[in-house]
Structures are given as structure tokens and as C-alpha cells.
Amino acid sequence: MKIVYLDGKDRVKQYKLLFQIGSGGFGTVYSATDTHNNKDVAIKIFQVTLNITDSEAIENWKREAEQALNIKDKNVISSYEFRKGELPDGSEKYYLVMELADGGSLDKLIESQKTKNEFIPDDQLKNFFKEILSGMKVIHEVALHRDLKPENMLFVKNVLKISDFGLAKYVDQSTRTRSFKGWGTVRYMAPESWTLGKMSQSTDIYSLGIVFYQMTTLELPYSSADDKEMQEMHCFGTIPSAKKINQNLSYKFEGIIKKMMQKSPSDRYQSVKDIIIELDKPDTQSNTDRSTTISLAKQFLEKQEQEKSEKTKKEEENQLKFKATKFKVQEIIDLINQEVEELSNFLPEEKPWLSKGTENDYTLIWGGKDLVRFHFDPTVFEANLIINGQYITAYGYAEILKSTQKDEGINFILVKNTDDDYGTWKALEITFSVFIGRLIYPLAVEYQILAQVAKQGNAIGNYQYTSRADVKEEIQKVIQKALEYLNAPQPQLRSNQPRIYDPETMFDKDD
Predict the structure, then answer these.
(1) I want to staple 207 with a disulfide (CB 3.0 to 4.6 A). Which of 188, 236, 268, 289 is the partner?
(2) Under DSSP, is residue 227 helix (H, G, I), strand (E, B) or coil?
(3) What are the CB-based long-range contacts (under 8 Å, 24+) for 52-57?
(4) Are 132 and 75 in contact (CB under 8 A)?
């Protein structure tokens, strides 16, 4: 190529372009020599001009560009200067002078491992994870990256470094989706990027979760050539298990990646520092090792079209709510299945199993005996139930079938989050009120009682309730209690009694 020089901050014709090393939607990257400092550098020449005309916007851009250029960390590609200069053809272009990466990209490493059919070992994965997180920790002190992907993670003398940060939101969008106003490459975009939600550090953390999944499995969790299908998978698709593909992957990494990939920002790690702490925990102390929690709830596929009538909008909204609550019901069923599978590891040859009855009814069976009945209703959102000031979108219960006390068990409610469109499962213990003189034990109640509880509140009436956040623990307690009843001498149970609707009909008159 013809010898081309570009001006630098230290002198005219400071940079000598050597050869092209890459190109993309933003422009072309060249290997170059810094003749003033006698070192190799990379120079990205942008093929577009920044479409900024407002003077205040320009000043804001310059300030944030300076912040990005000041980010210095061993795991971040150093940016030396960003300027507008004249090229030999007379055109004026923006160009970025940065550290030269001599070891290729993480994307190339993944492709190489895939070709060899060899997974990256856990110890090497941990080193890569920590290098990426170390760089992101520093970047997040001043900016969001918004476009994390393996192509933007480069090796410099065997050290993994993050590149292409800070300026991404100011330069041409030609490599990003035009279907939505969110930012990112569609394969790595968080749900809130698709639905114009609030961007935060957890948005980058979701993208990192996709990258980490790809590093552990050598493939993407979601793949489609259609952007609309990609949106559907990122917003509503079940989070796949990396360990099912890479069976040698530790449970610890599996749990960390799943938490990073949660649909709701509030359910992900809130900072990369939290992930680093989790990575450094001994495997025996990690709370995420056994976690198979699926994502929480849903977000609308897109903004409702303005020209549609309110009736049509409401119908579409309810369809999405029903879809989301069914998704959440499947999440808690998966959690129950997880507990049953973990229990089976400690039991003799005959294993417990979860039998499906109707669409929303399941029974835990062991030794030919029905232990616990699980029932869920994903349509409660239509009733506008509110308990403790929280809107209930779905509910369910676990009834201990071998209990000597009628309808003993626990209830589950899906409460809507306040800061996003996702919901969170909670356990709801309902008992008779101490004021009506009945036995006090936890009840598994039908919808009519739940509605009565919501209407009366917790201060008066026939029932009292307490909500708990740890649903997994309550499931474990119910199963444990069922096994206790199974092992205890069984008195004659009352027969032909209806499920609870009124405490006055719960007991025989001579009780």
C-alpha cells in the first residue's frame, strides 16, 4: 500500500500506516508505527463522520470521549488519542490510536477450540473470566460498554483485554440492529436493550453472561438469522444449561452464568465486583452451585402501536401477561424438579418423581405413595389481587397429602416487581387467625381463600399470613414434612371433607 502518515498529538506525521488488519461497519483498522515514541500501535479510521450538530451535544461527547481515553487497566486496550485529521485523499476522518493486540481475539480462540473439539479447561476459563471482569470493573467506573462480544476481547502477549468501549454510542450504528433503539449486537443484547428499557451495568453483565456461556460451550445460547426471533429468545427463551453441553463444567460456573443471564436486570449481579467475589469463593461455599433458577417473568415484545384502540391494546397486554405468568409457572416447576432430582441422589434405588396431571397440577410420588400435590394458576393477574401492597400475577400451593391435618401446606404468589415488568415468586404462609380459636398450622388454600385474604388484609378476619422470599427453602420444607408424615404412625384421616372455604366447616362439631 502507498505510505500514509497521520498527524498525532506529539508531532505532524506521527503515525505511519503499515497494513490493514481488519475492517467493519465502523471503519478500517491498520497496524501502524508511532514514529515519535518508537512503538507499534493500531489505528482505527472511521468511515463516517459523527452526526452531531448541537454544540452542547458535541461538548458532552468530548467529555465522555476523554473519560474513555483515560481508562487505564492491564485488561483494557489502551486508547492513546482520538482526533479528526486530514487523510491523503483530502477527506477529514476521525481516527482512534490505540494499543496493538498481537494475539488475536477471544472469538478466534473459541473458533479454534471448536475446530479441535476441545472445551476450554475450568482453570483457564476462570483466568479469562477474571481478566474480563477486571477490565469491566474499571470501565464501569466511567461508562457502559454496550457492545460486549468475543470480537471485542483481544489478546496482548497472552493477556486478555477489552476493546471498543466508550465511543460505541457515538459512532455510526451500521453494525447494530435498526429494528429497535437499543444498543448492542443482537446475539448478545439484554432484554432491556430490545425493549428500550433502562440501561445499567447489569445490561453489560447480561452480555458478559452470553460471552461466558459461549466460552464454556463453544456455542451461543440463542441463535437465529431473524432479529425478531432473537428478541423472542432473549426476552422469553429458557436459559439453556451450559453444563448439559460441557459436562466437565463446574456447577459454580454454571450457576454464575445463569445468574448473569437472568431476564430481569434486578435478578442479575448488580456489579462485576459481585461476580469476582463469587468466582473467588470456594466451591463448597458457593450459593449458586445448585441453582437452576430460570429467569423471572416477562417484558412486552415491543411498544404497543399507537394507532390501535385501547381495547386491542388491553387484549394484547393480557396475552403477554398470560404468556409471562405461564413462563414463571414453568420456572417454579423446574425449581421443584430440581429439588426432587437432588433428593433422589440421597435415596435408595426407587427414586421420587414429579407426575404431571392437568396442565398446572403435579404430584410428588415416592414408593407408590402420593406425597405432595402442587397446583398453579397463571391467570390470577386478571383479578387485580393485591397483598401487602404487591400486585399478584399468579399463584399456587403445595398440599401435603399425607398430613393428619386437613389442607396443610404452603402457598406461592408471583408478585410484580416495582422497577421492571418482571415478577418474583414468594412463599405465602396462611393460617387461621388466633382469634377464632382453631388449630394453627400452615394451610394450602384454593383461590377463593387467597382472594379473601387479599380483601381482608392481615389485621382482621379468619386468616393471617406471612410472606417469605426463599421459595426454594419452602419447597424443601414441604417435601421434608411430607416425608415425616410418611414415616410417622398414621391415624385415621377424616374422609370426604371439602377443601377449605370457611373455617367453620373445617372441623366436626365435636372437635
Answers:
(1) 188
(2) helix
(3) 52/170
(4) yes
pTM for this prediction: 0.55
pLDDT in tens, the chain (511 residues): 578 889 998 888 999 999 988 776 567 889 999 999 999 999 888 765 455 444 554 455 455 556 667 788 899 988 888 888 887 777 887 788 888 988 889 999 999 999 999 999 999 999 999 999 999 999 888 888 888 999 989 999 899 999 876 444 433 333 333 333 345 688 999 988 888 778 889 999 999 999 999 999 999 999 988 999 999 999 998 999 999 999 999 989 999 999 999 999 999 999 999 999 999 987 653 444 444 443 444 455 555 455 554 566 667 677 777 888 888 888 899 999 989 988 888 877 788 889 988 888 999 998 889 999 999 988 877 778 888 888 888 899 999 998 888 889 999 999 987 766 668 999 999 888 766 666 778 888 888 888 888 888 776 667 888 888 899 999 999 999 998 888 865 444 433 444 443 434 433 434 3
Closest CA to 390 of 412, 418, 431: 418
CA atoms of 363 and 258, how far apart (whole Å)? 27
CB neighbour class for 460 (10 Å; exposed up to 12, middle 13-18, buried from 19): exposed
* CA 387 – CA 458 distance, rounded (Å): 9
